Amino acid sequence: MDNPENPTSVVLSDEQLLEYLDAVEKKTLDYLDTLSDDMLYSCPEGCRFTRMELVLRQYRHLSFHTGMLNGQVAVATGEFPMWVSDADKYIDDGVFFGRYRGGQTKI
Question: Got the DSSP string for 8-73?
Fold first, then answer.
């Protein structure tokens, strides 16, 4: 399901996706809990990057996929996804969204 060149008919339910998210979160936190400061500055065997670099690269990777998903939603719906933030409500000040959206999204 992770290869766009190999489409699948499988559709995961919200419950399945949330269970997967919980499992990934647990596995990630369990791994991070095993790392000492010294380990963060060392490279795993056969890898040219330190563990710290690898962790930080995962943040970049996640941001990349979030952007790709937001782009797909914009193309499919004609609207950008709502941002989640520390604000207590959704705010569209017209500057950020207007600057990048500039009208209806074209396919």
Answer: ------HHHHHHHHHHHHHHHHHHHHH--HHHHTSPPTT-SS-HHHHHHHHHHHHHHHHHHHHHHH
- Alpha-carbon span 52 to 99, nearest angstrom: 36
The pLDDT tens digits of the residues spanning 48-105 come to 999 999 999 998 988 888 888 888 888 888 887 776 666 665 555 554 444 444 444 4
For the chain, domain boundaries: 14-78
CA distances, 53 to each of 30, 39, 67, 80 (Å)? 18, 11, 21, 31
pLDDT in tens, 21-37: 889 889 989 999 999 99
CB 43 within 8 A of CB 51: yes
